[in-house]
What does this fold into?
Amino acid sequence: MRFLITAQDTAGNVTLNRASVPAALKKATELISDGCGNVEIVPPDGAPYQPGEFDQLRERVGPVGSDLSLTAQ
It folds into this structure.
């Protein structure tokens, strides 16, 4: 599975990908901490999650410690 993380920094748009929700959440949080704006995570189903919705994405896969993707929906 591929989770895209998009953001804007002072140089322009940034797009990264991670293989799991926990990894995507970690990177998105790092980007926010680094001052990036418009940070969102786009899971394989294509529905973007804004920072205020990251908890909803986390709840879809269970405990943060588990490195699961969204294969069981």
About this structure: Helices lie at 21-33, 54-61.
